[in-house]
Amino acid sequence: MVFIEDGRIVSVTPDAPGPVTDLGDVTLLPGLVDAHSHLAFRPPLDIEQLTTDDDEALLKRMRTHAQQALRAGITTVRDLGDRNYLGLTLRAEQDGPELLVSGPPITTPGGHCWFLGGATTDVRAAVRERVERQVDVIKVMATGGSVTPGSSMQESQFTLDELRVIVDTAHDAGIRVTAHAHGAQGIADAVRAGVDGIEHCTFIGAEPDWTTVAAIAEAGIFVGVTVGRTPPSPRADAIRAMYARMHRDGVRLVCSSDAGITARKPHDVLPLVVPEFVSFTESTPTAGLKAVTSLAAQSCGVGHRKGRIAPGYDADLLAVSGNPVADLQALTGVHAVFRAGQRIR
Ligand SMILES: [Zn+2]
Question: Which residues surround ligand 1, an ion (CB under 5 A)?
Fold first, then answer.
């Protein structure tokens, strides 16, 4: 029995007096947390459309994507790249999943995802602008990325000094920083700068730098693994083997989606990628479930109120038919979803 009052879990007990909602024979989980999503991207990302649509059209699309995630049991979505801070407008509406928003990622002129509007040569001013607008997290493109024409995934976009300014300015304001990073130098510099999270962390085009990986584990930096539903390729296989070793070495790996980026990543994809996450990290179904609930919540800085069914936690709940610990496919058998105590499905 889970007692809910004012959107929060009050107690969890074996039996209950009083009126109840009987969900029947289901497994109850905390609502899922997608720590890396792009509500503004209609999968697959269409740069032309993203830059030409007006704010109203874009906001409408983001709203639809947020509802799609919520119906799949994703009750918290961290948006790591919108345009024109539209995620903040959506966050204020409060009838979808809880949103944690970065606004446009900080990037270089012409750099990865420049088309979202976050290109700058003054990183301190860029962080301050985001702090003033009350974003939940700072996202920085430490290296290039695959979806931006002319961008190289291996190459760093910022110097170590610039990354330090970004992290120090954000931390002074009490805000976390997560860095998109593929290339070894960009990853190593982000770690030295003291980021809280690294997205992708693929060491693309090189052997993984295990000294840096050891530093990531030591510092407790979260790594967002976003390779689920990526078509098979030799490159993807090498990256998967690397994640397995990272897991063994004690890196806190979060299972997130990067939803919106490709056609195979719609905004409700997260529950579908957990079995893949477990197989390529060579972990267990329980570890996979933590990686989309409690651990994902911690990586977003909301681990004290999201990702567990316990007194004091937000009443964000997902009820599924079957037992996902025995069979992770059960995550898609959604029976009910509660967001802040309200049943929305
Ligand atoms: Zn992304």
Answer: 258
The enclosing domain of 60 has a CATH number of 3.20.20.140
Show the domain range for 186.
31-304
115 domain-assigned: yes
325 domain-assigned: no
Q: How many CB atoms lie within 10 A of CB 249?
A: 13
Q: How far is the CA of 81 from the centre of ligand 1 (A)?
A: 7
The side-by-side arrangement of strands in the sheet containing 27-30 is 27-30, 317-320, 334-339, 342-343
Burial-class residue 174 by CB neighbours within 10 Å (0-12, 13-18, 19+).
Answer: exposed
Q: Per 3-state DSSP, what percentage of the chain is helix, strand, and coil (rounded to 5)?
A: 35, 20, 45
CA of 16 to the centre of ligand 1 (A): 44
Q: How many domains does the chain have?
A: 1
**Span from the CA of 306 to the centroid of ligand 1 (angstroms):** 22
Give average pLDDT by consecutive 10-residue segment, the chain, 345 residues.
94 79 93 98 92 95 98 98 97 95 98 96 98 98 93 95 98 98 97 98 92 98 90 80 95 97 96 94 96 98 98 98 96 97 95
- Between the CA of 18 and the centroid of ligand 1 the distance, in Å, is 46
Look up the pTM and report it.
0.97
Domain for residue 202, yes or no? yes
pLDDT of residue 18: 66
> What three-state secondary structure class fits 35?
strand
C-alpha of residue 220 to centroid of ligand 1, in Å: 21
